[in-house]
Inverse folding.
């Protein structure tokens, strides 16, 4: 199925959980926050959150930046 | 002085009054060394989409979160709504409930949009965030932000990244007279004397990024800033002599050789 992750199309297994997606992307869940279709998903719900085709995800973390 | 002179806000204590950024460094290694040299305990970070190409190194590999408190910022946000959303996502990462609240009103000057800033401050305070808003050097606005529950106010010295120093020390002084929360000069510091001036005015701290990261030698500049903030703070506590137009001899007038 196709997802939109951080603005990019991405293929993931049908019915994959959020945990599975982060694994696939090799992202440490302890360093990110995830928004699924405009809703922030708590970390303890990653495992139980099944993704659907067309879901839009924002995966964010802390990046270099001071101001501006 | 370092043992007893503590920067306190929202029940947290910091021995260093210098807050540093993570942007614009030549690489993460020099950033880490600069952080070390600065003596800072608070480090501001941006909130952005992760790079899905995992070949790149992660900023968090270069910040020891046991030693440094992270201060996520809402840099790049132009509305209260964007800033609020960014702050919520930042808190969800689970490493900090502080937020350096920035709502930019103009792309060229990067001056804040104070109307949106105040709106976002009210919402985030209610939601339990420790809000540190970046604002103009406007005493009225500083008061409004404090009344809205800001944990500190962070007036600019000059536009972000400009290196122009504290352009309006008199406004900063007025803010200091009225504020009951810490006043931290945020933005504009170009070199050590700028930081010292902010501290000599009586500010509780200074936040800077470009001044260090953009220097030819960021590590040396970080150390210079550490000394400048300490020197400025000590000078403020020591109480400077009044400015006078004419000379006053410091040697006795009696006992002159005839």
């Amino acid at each position: 199925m196709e997802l939109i992750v951080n603005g990019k199309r991405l293929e993931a297994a049908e019915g994959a959980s959020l945990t599975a997606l982060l694994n696939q992307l090799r992202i440490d869940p302890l360093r990110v926050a995830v928004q699924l279709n405009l809703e922030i998903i708590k970390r303890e719900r990653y495992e139980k959150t099944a993704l659907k085709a067309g879901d839009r995800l924002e995966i964010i973390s802390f990046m270099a930046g001071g101001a501006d | 002085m370092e043992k007893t002179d503590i920067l306190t806000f929202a029940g947290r204590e910091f021995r260093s009054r210098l807050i540093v950024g993570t942007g614009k460094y030549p690489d993460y290694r020099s950033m880490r060394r600069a952080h070390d040299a600065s003596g800072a305990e608070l480090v501001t970070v941006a909130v952005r989409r992760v790079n899905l190409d995992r070949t790149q190194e992660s900023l968090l590999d270069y910040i020891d979160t046991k030693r440094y408190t992270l201060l996520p910022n809402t840099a790049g946000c132009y509305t209260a709504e964007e800033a609020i959303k960014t702050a919520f996502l930042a808190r969800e990462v689970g490493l900090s409930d502080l937020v350096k609240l920035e709502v930019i009103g103009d792309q060229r000057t990067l001056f804040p949009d104070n109307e949106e800033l105040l709106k976002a401050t009210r919402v985030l305070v209610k939601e339990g965030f420790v809000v540190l808003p970046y604002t103009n050097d406007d005493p009225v606005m500083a008061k409004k932000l404090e009344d809205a529950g800001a944990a500190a106010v962070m007036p600019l010295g000059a536009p972000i990244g400009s290196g122009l120093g504290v352009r309006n020390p008199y406004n900063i002084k007025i803010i200091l007279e009225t504020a009951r929360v810490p006043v931290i000069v945020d933005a504009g510091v170009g070199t050590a004397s700028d930081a010292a001036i902010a501290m000599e005015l009586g500010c509780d701290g200074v936040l800077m990024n470009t001044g260090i990261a953009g220097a030819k030698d960021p590590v040396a500049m970080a150390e210079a800033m550490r000394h400048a903030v300490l020197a400025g703070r000590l000078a403020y506590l020591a109480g400077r002599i009044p400015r006078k137009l004419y000379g006053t001899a410091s040697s006795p007038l009696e006992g002159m050789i005839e």
The two ends of chain B are 46 Å apart (CA to CA). Strands of chain B lie at 7-9, 12-14, 18-20, 42-49, 69-73, 98-101, 130-135, 154-155, 184-186, 205-208. The first strand of chain B starts at residue 7 and ends at 9.
